[in-house]
Amino acid sequence: MADDDLLATLDALIGANQDRRGALLPLLHAIQAQFGYIPDAAVPRLAQALRQSRADIDGVISFYRDFRRTPPRAHTLRLCRAESCQAMGADTLAHLLDHALAADGPVACEPVYCLGACACSPALELDGRLHARVTPDRLLELLARLEQQP
Q1: Membrane-spanning regions, if any (predicted)?
Q2: How many CA atoms lie within 13 A of 30 on its CB side?
Q3: Of the options 3.40.50.620, 3.30.1490.20, 3.40.30.10, 1.10.390.10, the CATH number for the domain spanning 75-148
Q4: pTM across the whole model
Q5: Is the dihedral of CA 8, 13, 16, 20 positive or negative?
Q6: Binding site annotation covers 109?
Q7: What gap in Å lies between CA 121 and CA 106, rounded to an integer?
Q8: 118 a known binding residue?
């Protein structure tokens, strides 16, 4: 999206919501829904429209883990790091992921505290789909499938 288009879209989103009480969170959600992340250009525009400092806006964005400051990658893998998954091999999976994934590759790896699949540990979520009782071999299969996708 061209810079002018991005700014026009930001201004439209902000203008439609800035007078709402507690507008910052709904605006951040709307901006991320539109762009897939919170562009840097949004921070000063939000600060001015909501009469808050840029530091306040940045603080809210960084506090909530679901807000992204960069465009999302093609795939998101969330590995459970809670006690049950740890006891059943999540450390081995994390180590494997550290070596198998490129830092700037198409898969973003995020640790999460619990996916609610403790009875089927270790568990991970790949693009919103839960995978349980994941072994290192199974993890490598999942990653290989991602590489085959266009």
Answers
A1: none
A2: 17
A3: 3.40.30.10
A4: 0.69
A5: negative
A6: no
A7: 25
A8: yes
